[in-house]
Amino acid sequence: MAQQSDTVDAGSAQQTPLPPTIEVIDDRGVSIQLAQPAERIISLAPSLTELLYVAGAGSKLVGVVEYSDYPEEALSLPLIGRFDRFDIERILELKPDLVVAWLTGNPRSTIEALENLGLTVYVAEPKFLDSIPTQLTKLGQLAGTEADASAAIDDYETTLARLATRYRAESPVRVFYQVWDRPLMTAGGAELTNDLIELCGGINVFGELSALAPKVNLEAVLLRDPELIVASGIDERRPAWLDTWDEWPSITAVANRQVVFIDPDLTQRHSPRVLQGAEILCEQIATARALQREGAGQ
């Protein structure tokens, strides 16, 4: 029996061990498993492209969607469509071993089609400030770039803590964040932008709304009388429609000339760059707060 046991042990020792399996749970609650770190990655959203670069996986990207324009290196990557419409044949040609998708931004049917074709799809939903480090951790695990992701998380959390310490406990300022003009759209309470407003010591005047980019009416804005109006628009240029608020001087923000613009890429993209937008927003809210105090002292 001893000789038989020795033979079995020797045979076992000669077997090639299986590589460790990488496993993370995506935001659908699905277990995503890889036998080894992903080497060919496709991103299906501009914010996810940014997150992959920050997590140290930029060199592994082989395809992205339109508007994946940051960092600059992303502009040279092959395009596979836009966030809501993909060229599946092109995706297959690029032979990804991992596709990173956006839960509420990409069509569910397309994600399912990619999985039915045998592709591994990690689905993310980085909705809030505290979800950005979580996504960096998981993307770093999937790409085998944990050290880069960890360093980025440290930087992010240090900056976030500094802003929270400086601004969050200040006297509140009523803020209306305008996403679009026709129809009039804002940011509700279950969005990244709401997190930014609260981080800066502001109150989102439509924070009770749970819908994504809910539509509101002018009368509701007038009733809430914001002390700061922040507009985003669609690119880095100040939208012309922001000037229409001059027609309503009864609004405190208009009377105090506190109607401002911030590049939407810095307030609506779910990446560490959002803290650059937070810095700007916090300064704008601080200015409105100072005017509020001046008015109270008169």
From TrEMBL:
Biased composition (Polar residues): 1-16
PROSITE patterns in alphabetical order: FE_B12_PBP
Pfam family, one: Peripla_BP_2
InterPro entries: ABC_Transporter_SBP, ABC_transptr_periplasmic_BD, Vit_B12_bind_prot
UniProt KW tRNA-binding keyword: no
Alphabetical UniProt keywords: Signal
Database matches in CDD domains: BtuF (cd01144)
Region (Disordered): 1-20
GO biological process entries: cellular response to iron ion
Fe/B12 periplasmic-binding domain boundaries: 40-289
Gene3D superfamilies: Nitrogenase molybdenum iron protein domain
Coiled coil (UniProt feature): none
Domain of life assignment: Bacteria
Record protein name field: Fe/B12 periplasmic-binding domain-containing protein
Organism in which the protein naturally occurs: OM182 bacterium BACL3 MAG-120507-bin80
Lineage: Bacteria, Pseudomonadati, Pseudomonadota, Gammaproteobacteria, OMG group
